[in-house]
Design a protein that fits this description.
Blueprint lengths: L1 H27 L2 H20 L7 H5 L8 H19 L1 H23 L4 H38 L1
Helix pairs in contact: 1-2, 1-4, 2-4, 4-5, 5-6
Length: 156
């Protein structure tokens, strides 16, 4: 179980790093080309990795429901949206909002599929409160910096 928890944590680190790298790539071009390159390089990497692995029968893949094939589209939208917002919001706020969206959609999915534990709902509420507190703190910091800049300019 510890291995799975560590792998999930590593996955979170990879997502955060991917956001920052794609944001930088998007800054050099635009969000759509950054997404295209992200997926192209990822495709090449996975293709090279899969060469050494056994291939599942195509029938197994074709048995998946039609909606399951939309994961790539959702992934591409995620990369584009993230690339558009990360440089404007900053890595921390962007990550908090993405995690909040993941938690919210996870709870909503669990509501449809199975019962939701009240502690899960409390956890989501706490995360949203944290996002709001972070945003408020960030706004006050910007206001303070602007005030200090005005004070310096009036002294000169």
């Amino acid at each position: 179980m510890l291995t799975l928890l560590l792998l999930a944590l590593l996955n979170g680190v990879c997502i955060g790093l991917c956001r920052i790298l794609n944001g930088r790539l998007g800054q050099a071009s635009d969000a759509y080309y950054a997404s295209l390159w992200n997926h192209g390089v990822g495709f090449i990497f996975l293709s090279l990795l899969l060469v050494s692995m056994p291939t599942p029968p195509i029938a197994v893949l074709l048995d998946a429901p039609l909606y399951a094939w939309l994961g790539g589209v959702v992934g591409a939208v995620f990369v584009v949206l993230n690339t558009l917002v990360i440089l404007r919001l900053g890595a921390t706020l962007c990550s908090l909002l993405v995690i909040s969206g993941q938690l919210l959609s996870g709870v909503l999915f669990d509501l449809v599929v199975k019962a939701v534990n009240p502690l899960q709902l409390l956890g989501v509420i706490i995360i949203f409160a944290g996002v709001l507190a972070f945003r408020r703190m960030e706004a006050k910091s910007v206001e303070r910096q602007e005030f200090e800049l005005e004070q310096r300019e009036t002294k000169h």
